[in-house]
Amino acid sequence: MRPQLVRLSGFGMTTAADAWQVLPSSDEDVRQALRLAKAEGRRIVLRGAGRSYGDAAIRPEAVAVSFERMRRILSWDAERGILAVEAGGTVGDLWRFALPDGWWPPVVSGTMFPTVGGAIAMNIHGKNAFREGTLGEHLAWIDVMDSEGQVHRVRPEDPAFRAIVGGAGLVGIILRAAIRMKRVPSGDLRVLAVAARNWREQFEVFSRHENEADYLVSWVDCFARGSSAGRGLIHAAWYSEGGRSTLSLEHQELPDTILGLVPKSVVWRFLKALNRRSAMRALNGAKYRLGTWIGNGKMEHQSLVAFSFLLDYVPNWRWAYLPGGFIQYQSFVPKEAAPRVFESQVALQQRLGLEAFLGVLKRHRPDGFLLSHGVDGYSLALDFKVTPRNRERVWSMAHQMNELVLEAGGQFYLAKDSTLRPQDLRRWLGPRLQEWREWKRLFDPSGLLTSSLAERTGLIDP
Amino acid sequence: MRTYERAIVVGASSGLGRAIAARLAASGCRVAAVARRLERLESLASEAPPGRILALRHDVRRLDDVPEAFDAACRALEGLDLVVYSAGFMPPVGPTEFDTPKDRQIVEVNFLGAVAWLNLAADRFLQTRRGAIVGIGSVAGDRGRKGQPVYNASKAALHAYLEALRNRLHGKGVTVATFKPGPMRTEMTAHLRLSRAMDPDSAARIVLSKAHVSGEHYLCLSHRLVFAVLRNTPSWIFRRLPV
Ligand SMILES: Cc1cc2nc3c(=O)[nH]c(=O)nc-3n(C[C@H](O)[C@H](O)[C@H](O)COP(=O)(O)OP(=O)(O)OC[C@H]3O[C@@H](n4cnc5c(N)ncnc54)[C@H](O)[C@@H]3O)c2cc1C
Ligand SMILES: NC(=O)c1ccc[n+]([C@@H]2O[C@H](COP(=O)([O-])OP(=O)(O)OC[C@H]3O[C@@H](n4cnc5c(N)ncnc54)[C@H](OP(=O)(O)O)[C@@H]3O)[C@@H](O)[C@H]2O)c1
Question: Residue B243 domain-assigned?
């Protein structure tokens, strides 16, 4: 297991770092990586599929332990739906394995590439966050290696669980996990599309469906102003009865071409040509108008994969943001304050001429994890293009937005973060930060585990 | 000028290397400044914005020390985008002097030290598929002149080595630039009475503007033209020229 110097970047491509990558295949290999780092006086950064947007899975000159060779399915209880898998198994591996038996991951991200280790370390949520919470609420156990090489089986009732799940890869090394899968009646969903003319209608539609829909998500046109500000398209979805055939992998796979014509692999090049403010304004407007004409208020059937992993339709779509990359700014705000805060955020980015090319609204619920992003409220995720010219302005805008979120008692999400400063982090986490650091000290007394994010935000002392 | 975030400059205590390090630091780059005279490097660091310049004492003739120094620099800088090898040695040499120990030092500083540092840079950049390598050669390496046989030879060797690196690394995301300055007003030339010499800061500006452009670069058009002619001048004429 010779370390290889590689350039690693976050998904948003705004930060990158050279690190010494090792690819363990076993617990013993992971232990060897710990020894190697100690012997060379380097620190360790853990890395899954690198789908975090910012700098959570990079750290210059560190030993980067990547889990792509540890992705075996270890056991499957098809009666109770408990799937044990190694940390490098991906969300895609999970559904491909279990769906033919009628089970689906309880929580999935908007892309199927994240690994189980990365997903637990960030405690991901899905479009069902308001019903099912975060992934950490659906685990039977996790196996965690501390920085001395000891392996612990940690269960939800163990107090350390709250620190490791969502602990951003800084408390311990997740080796394996057992996930309680969700039984589904079919591989399809009934999906209802509703156009909302403004913020008020957005929140009305969410309130109407939050007690009975299985999934809820909305797209927001961040260019629309005045009485149209906050307009967008909401999708509510329900598990549906359907034939067993819908559980097959063939039924689920995403097509290789768009409209049967354009190979998906080239689509990012078209997107790149459109990756400008004027074109994006027009595109967002057109998408909204199209949504009001076609399918508004209609129910359609969609496969679980097509609904869940919309973003995987276009491979490498992020390259459209090259060369500067992009950040996602996602904040989580209690339901009473969310309309006010999100309206102000969107107005602010418009005033600055830095409109997000994509905005996504979701409903959440609180959970008890120490670095949790869960709230009884909403999140708004905004994708901002970054260029060498606008970089400073984007960061300073994010800091202004933080102020709005913190005043309202909101939360942030480390998987998406690129802009939090130590002062923001301290205000956000309050006493939770000390409590979490004590767990970190217990599992990682030598402070071996780190990341650029951890050092930037002051999560750990550099 | 392209901006760099992390650079190593070898030979940063004086002349061209110092000017390059100062300019890099002023542009926001973090620089590991390498040379023997630590106090010089520290005074350079104190003139730059705080924390930008890291002084690293090292004698390039100690080839076995290079890997450790290189690693220390990369760790302290938290990565590497650019390496500039500017260390050079050109002692006065009499017209009939043949002093092997002196010549050996010239080769060690101008050539072997460069090989030791730039080999490591090439290896690292090849792995990360990015980076810029800059070697400071000299117009003196274009021909074998009477006055400085081994200095000329060491620069010619450096040029050939850099050309080979450039060819090896072509298409791999790594650039290799050779600069061939003419006379510059620095400590190296303090004992000579130079009439037309470039000041090192102007030279540094030109070097940094083309540091990521693979190829051989003269610092001014007139040198490019004159040396195109000189390189092709037959020896029996060349040895009669007052150069
Ligand atoms: C297009 C897209 C859509 C997304 N949609 C959503 C969404 O809907 N909901 C959501 O919650 N997130 C979403 N995300 C974010 C993504 O789910 C998280 O960033 C997730 O953590 C990525 O997993 P990864 O395997 O790529 O981990 P990485 O990004 O590589 O690492 C994430 C963190 O996990 C740590 N880590 C990795 N492996 C381990 C391990 N074995 N043990 C301990 N720590 C480890 C790393 O150190 C790092 O801190 C989305 C991301 C993208 C790119
Ligand atoms: N000046 C000119 O007219 C001219 C013309 C063409 C090309 N060049 C070339 O340009 C480069 C820079 O020259 P310069 O004019 O700036 O010379 P300079 O002012 O004399 O500087 C030379 C630098 O090299 C360093 N150096 C020398 N020996 C070293 C050693 N053993 N270990 C570590 N560092 C060593 C010196 O640092 P320490 O002494 O502190 O170690 C100093 O920083 C050289 O390669 C030179 O050959 C110069």
Answer: no
